[in-house]
Amino acid sequence: MPSRLVVGAGSTARAILDGISGDHDRLHVLTADEHRAETLREDGISVTVTETYRDAMADLAVEPATVVVATAEPAANVTAAEVASAAFPDAYLLCYAGYDATEAQLLRLRAVADRLIEPEAVVRDHLSQSIGSAGTRTRQLQQVLRDIDDHLAVVTHDNPDPDAIASAVALGELAARAGCEVSLCYYGDISHQENRAFVNLLEYDLVNLDPEDDDALDAYDGFALVDHSRPGVNDQLPEELPIDIVIDHHPPRLPVEARYVDLRSGVGATSTLLVDYFRRLDIEVPESIATGLLFGIRVDTKDFRREVSPEDFEAAAELVSRADMGALQRIEDPSVSGETLAVVGRAITNRREEGSVLLSCVGQLSDRDALAQAADQLLDLEGIHATMVYGVLDGTIYISARARGADIDLGEALRDAFGQIGSAGGHADMAGAQITLGVLDSVDDREESLHSIVSSVVNDRFLDVVQSRSHRLLGRMNGRTEYATDGYSELTGPGSDEHDTA
What we know:
By secondary structure, this protein is of the alpha/beta class. It has helices at 11-19, 34-42, 53-58, 74-87, 103-112, 119-130, 132-147, 162-177, 193-201, 270-280, 287-300, 310-320, 325-332, 338-349, 369-378, 410-418, 450-468; strands spanning 4-7, 27-31, 46-49, 66-69, 92-96, 115-117, 151-155, 181-186, 206-208, 222-226, 245-248, 260-263, 352-354, 357-364, 386-393, 396-403, 423-426, 430-436. The strands form 3 sheets. The chain has a 6-stranded parallel sheet with strand order 3-2-1-4-5-6, sandwiched between helices. Helix 4 (74-87) packs parallel to helix 5 (103-112).
């Protein structure tokens, strides 16, 4: 262990000493206070009582790797810092300015210190975190959490992705600290192998709600939604269910009602918003939660290439030192299921290209998350700027769309195409939709196969919207208007679930 020298034994220095590990063999303290020196010696710390730092530092048997100067007097700190800088030029020098330090003293400390702590600046920073709109927002969240009678259900969107899961876990931690019993809930499945590895490796305890169980929600006294904003829209909660908390980064299409609402569409991930709460509440993010939040940000921003903001970078930088990077590596390299490979194969075989748009119906599914991976894979084909892959599972058509280098908003396009007959939405470059097969009962030709019926309805609706928006994806398409082939920048991350159906 590298040696450490601490100059001072007052309250600030003592707080620093208390934060240092219990191994004091390589720790030495210089102080002018004999009484405090005795107290430190009783704790097994080596102490020299002196008012002349130069001689005391020269007498040290081992040159320290770190020097902390933290007396209560600014003048004494300046003297000690300058002596330590000259005596131990290779040591890391951390200096505490002390209250009421003059500008001249601060300049001298800044000239020699590797890191200078100014108490007035610390107070200002703390106040800036506590007041203003951001501080008010944090206090309001705390108040609502404290008002929950007992048991809070934090609910993700259906078939949650890493951003939704990590945000739920993080909000659950804040709720538990506020005195709530917490359950982290979702409807649907976590079927993508990367998402399953994410949950299993980080040992997140999630509750899979049964939509057929009418009494399942009676166990909860409050409800929070993360990564989506309305009950009954991309979750299977009752639409009229009162919601206590909503935290989401997707812009809503309709007003959102809850006791506390935090909608910040300027960031790339809901996980970024949760990091902000931990920071403002001065709570260190536990390792498993930091790992999840970092992965959530990376997936939702396509490794910081899609809809990323400065806040996303700042949050990720804060999480890196606390996250388990080894676990992240294992999460990102899971095995691929045979069903996923089969779906990708059918998507390639059944593909239909219209200009730079690729459409593919893969038929019956057993794993809806395989659609997202197929849409990602097909986007790599030369000349393709947008893909839409879809299939049928349990009486529902699931659609996954991806785009790059094109001038269309996929989320809006899918809403226009399928919003009236199902639910749809997402990002500009990554979107999805769901349509129940019941709406296809009006199809006249009963001789057609299910595959043909689904393909006809889905393809025609989507292509009609693409053409009506007059963007430049289609090129020459079955005698329709010719479009120049241009693109729009839309990327997505592996493992993402399309979920913005509001």
